[in-house]
Amino acid sequence: MHKDKPFSQACENNKAPILEKLATLFKQPGTILEIGTGTGQHAVHFADRLPHLVWQPTDHPQNAQLCRPWIADSGLANINPPIALNVLDGVWFDLPAIIGAFSANTAHIMVWEEVRAMFLGIGGVLPSNGVFSLYGPFRYGGRHTSESNERFDRSLRAQASHMGIRDIEDLKALGEETGLVLEEDFEMPANNRLLVWRKS
Ligand SMILES: C[S@@+](CC[C@H](N)C(=O)[O-])C[C@H]1O[C@@H](n2cnc3c(N)ncnc32)[C@H](O)[C@@H]1O
């Protein structure tokens, strides 16, 4: 067992409600591509509870190895080794064939050009009718859904001007540009949402 594994309390809190949705979205066997895997807590939780899936973690090259201790300790056979994937780089064609994609808490961290690259890349590798599930906080009509999200947004922008909670309208426009149609928008605990995009 690895001591001092990277740990996110947010992942511990949100993994069960996210799993509940993913279980209904990813019913067929196949490989799910995760963008911005982070600690790997999500990857391990979902791969363990959805054994018909193969989980493919990826992350920015700076963070791509972060998830290895969680994956190693899980002993699960249905998680592939992580791939270093900066969404801006053209490495999307080296990925295994996938049936779906998932990403959590990445859109407000990435530069907008990276969010666009994530949608373009996923739009390119998803099969027709495939689902991309994007979890996180979002704004609607230019308004935050809670005071805590507003505070979080302010703290993100204070850290770096490129970060910030994204507007659903901008994401929808991006989806249209990249062949991804917003099909569902689930309310989740702690003022988060789980957006379901389907490849048209
Ligand atoms: C707030 S963390 C979320 C991690 C994890 N998904 C979670 O929910 O805890 C944001 C993640 O986005 C990744 N990321 C940021 N820019 C990226 C890029 N250009 N390409 C791929 N991943 C990126 C970071 O490396 C980090 O793992």
Automatic annotation (TrEMBL):
It comes from the Bacteria. Pfam families: DUF938. Gene3D superfamilies: Vaccinia Virus protein VP39. This is Methylase.
